[in-house]
């Protein structure tokens, strides 16, 4: 049997990771597109209601307002949202950009300038990820001190007990399945 060259193994692993990230990003983009369709339908219905109320009002002249106005609801809202996103997708690794997109969508965050976004990203979002790691609630795929050239990925930390319980359940299920077939 011929040995697979290391370069080919690296390329295959890299392709597998990019394929996973692409599939995950596509699913999240579809979720966001579905939410946008719902919001568009709500907007159309509201415009129609305004016209029924008073035909003289031009609903499209009403300027959009950010209802969140830069806040995350009750104290700890950003932290809870990031954790919920990762727990919902556990045990999958989730790209930083995907987490950010979901957070920004949930809170309706928009930034006028790139500087504003960078400040939020560094002081709020990234700091929240780091604190969740420090608290042992999430984990980072790669060591932050080692530059890999890849996007950072995160996941909710699975306790050793949960992992062992899941493994035991899986073994029992396989044994039950094998017994019923035989």
Question: How are the SSEs placed, and which strands pair?
Answer:
Layout: H1 6-53, H2 77-88, E1 94-95, H3 96-107, H4 114-134, E2 138-140, E3 153-156, H5 160-181
Antiparallel strand pairs: 1-3, 2-3
Helix pairs in contact: 2-3, 2-4
Structure description:
It is a single chain. The chain has five helices and three strands, in the order ααβααββα. By secondary structure, the protein is mainly alpha-helical. The protein has two domains: 64 residues; 116 residues, Winged helix-like DNA-binding domain superfamily/Winged helix DNA-binding domain (Arc Repressor Mutant, subunit A), CATH 1.10.10. The protein has a three-stranded antiparallel sheet. α2 packs across α3 and α2 packs across α4. It is extended, with a radius of gyration of 23 Å. The two termini are 35 Å apart. The mean pLDDT is 84.
Give a short synopsis of this structure:
The protein has helices spanning 6-53, 77-88, 96-107, 114-134, 160-181, and strands at residues 94-95, 138-140, 153-156. It is mainly alpha-helical and 182 residues long.
CATH class of the largest domain: Mainly Alpha
Largest sheet: 3 strands, antiparallel
- Find the CATH superfamily of the largest domain: Winged helix-like DNA-binding domain superfamily/Winged helix DNA-binding domain
Structural class label: mainly alpha
Based on the model shown, name its key terms.
mainly alpha, 2 domains, three-stranded antiparallel β-sheet, Arc Repressor Mutant, subunit A, 182 residues
